[in-house]
Amino acid sequence: MTGEYSGLIERLESVAADLDEMAFDRLREAVADGEITRPPDDKKLMQARRAIEKAAAVLRQLDET
């Protein structure tokens, strides 16, 4: 990545990966605790991850123009 926004895109991708890790950790903890439903914050973490991925995609498009 050599575009004007490449640094921001990389940072966003890193944050998305961090959110994935947090969500998976919460799911593992819930399973270990015998929970049978998703942890309450899992949905919000996934929503945040999707928003960050969308932002990175928009910046990639800007880099291509």
How would you summarize what this structure contains?
The chain has 65 residues and is mostly helical.
Q: Which residue ranges are poorly predicted, with pLDDT under 50 across at least 5 consecutive positions? A: none
Structural class computed from helices and strand pairing: mainly alpha
Major β-sheet, in short? none
- The pLDDT mean sits at 93
**How many structurally independent domains?**
1
Give the radius of gyration: 15 Å
Shape: elongated
Order of helices and strands: HH
Please give the alpha-carbon distance between the first and last residues.
14 Å
Helix content: over 70%
Strand content: under 5%
Q: Quick one: how many beta strands?
A: 0
Number of helices: 2
Q: What can you tell me about this protein's structure?
A:
By secondary structure, the chain is mainly alpha-helical. 77% of the residues lie in helices and 0% in strands. It has helices spanning 6-32, 42-64. Helix 1 (6-32) packs antiparallel against helix 2. It is elongated and about 50 Å long. It starts with 5 loop residues before the first helix and ends with a helix.
Keyword list:
65 residues; mainly alpha; 0% strand
